[in-house]
Amino acid sequence: MNWSLLNIGTNFTNLRYSVGIAMMFNGFPLIFFIRDTLKIGPANSIFTAAFLALGLILMIPRHIFKRLYKPNTILFNLGVGFLVIMFYYFMFINFGGKAIAEIGNFVFIFGFLILLLHIPNDVSETLVTVLFVLSLFANVTLVYSLLTDPNWTPGMRAAVSFSNDGAQPGGNPHITARNGVVCLISGFVLLSNTKGVFTKIFLFFSILFSLGVVVISLAKSSYIGIGLMLTAYFIFHFKVSSIFTGAASLFKFRNLLVLVLIVIGINAFLNKYGDILNLVLGYWDVFQDRIMDVIFTSFGVKLTETADVDYSAMGRVSGFGTFLETAFSWDAFLGRGYKSDYLDVPILESFVAYGIIGFLFFALFNLFLFLFAIREIRRGTSEISTFLAYFFVSLTILLITGGRPTDIAFWFPYAVMIRFLGIRYLNNTVPERQEEISNPVSA
């Protein structure tokens, strides 16, 4: 981690771009904290729109529409293709009405993607640092929100409670979990490139803190997503010889010092706040019970006596029935229309709503994202590409467990991946190629 990247005097432009991107990529935890905990601004979508608009404003370069940078062309063509299909269905095959919020979502998605094409390649390292700092700050604000919320008690899912009338009780724990995952991945990426002893210790405890936030959110998809990331890491980077190499490196003075300080820090924390560990372990037991409920609901297999019906899983099971009904009807060609059915399974809803063509665009887009992510995990060409690769791996579980293909929670990260993931000229091992293509492409 390079702390000098946070120096406004010497790195103002990259910081401005990075803060704008981070506000779009992972801004909802900050929105909820400012709006619902601090009670600043109206508790409705107007405040959200203003926050996102500020993010876009920070991204506006001086060379607007004069200088563009090349994205991943495969992802760009497939992603924009599906967005165009969605917008066409929104305008002409829409039986639910054209809400202002829906129009705003399209404006923000396309505006974000267009501005990303103006962001230079050398923002990579600054962007990961800013994502880490802002997500860590959001984790801290979550703790403050929970401690000041009279309706929250230990054992409940961790989330900022919404203050607007008619909002879902208890807030949105999935936003909490995603922010924890963002902080965890960005901290891990920075830790692998950090040499300073105290910075390493700071990043290590930040990662542990983020993991704790994910645990108390009780978001099953994020648990599984972290498991998928660990699996990918061990498949492509773990070697038996690395065990002996790592063990030998522990005896180096600097590494031994880091280890001793970490152990002392953990021991001091547990001595003073030992109940927190028991609380986290209690959340893990709740997670195991919920997994048993999902298995019972989906397959009818009761692995424990306490297993019961999981109603969110029941909705996905019924959604699969809707998918089969569509597949064996004329709707398979053109779909049923924009947001015609809520399946809570984005990959299946892309077929039900937009037919076989929409499904192919969305499925192929995610397939190539997966392939580029795996390649990046193997090679590690740049900090931002590595971060996005692991983040997409954690996101893949949501394609079959939650959300809609129209959600901005998907498309803001997708837009950043289109711009930075799988871009060969970000490879620092080939400086000639990077220098050649990192020169702006004239519009």
Report on the architecture of this protein:
This protein has 443 residues and is mostly helical. The protein has one domain (3-238, 310-442). 70% of the residues lie in helices and 1% in strands. It is built from 19 helices and two strands. It has helices at residues 8-26, 28-37, 45-59, 73-92, 100-116, 124-147, 173-192, 197-217, 220-237, 240-249, 253-272, 274-299, 311-327, 331-334, 346-379, 383-395, 398-401, 408-420, 431-437, and strands at 67-68, 441-442. It has a two-stranded antiparallel sheet. The two termini are 34 Å apart. Keywords: Membrane, Transmembrane, Transmembrane helix. This is O-antigen ligase domain-containing protein. The chain crosses the membrane at residues 15-34, 46-65, 71-91, 103-120, 126-147, 201-218, 224-244, 256-274, 351-372, 384-402, 408-426.
Largest sheet: 2 strands, antiparallel
Poorly predicted sequence stretches spanning 5 or more consecutive residues? 426-443
- Total DSSP E strands: 2
User: Which whole number gives the mean pLDDT?
Assistant: 83
How many domains in all?
1
Q: What would the principal axes of the Cα set say about the shape?
A: globular
Structural class computed from helices and strand pairing: mainly alpha
Strand content: under 5%
The helix fraction, in percent, is over 70%
Alpha plus pi helix count = 19
Strand arrangement across the biggest beta sheet = 1-2
Order of helices and strands: HHHEHHHHHHHHHHHHHHHHE
Distance between the termini: 34 Å
Rg, nearest Å: 22 Å
Protein name: O-antigen ligase domain-containing protein
Organism: Dyadobacter psychrotolerans
Keywords: Membrane, Transmembrane, Transmembrane helix
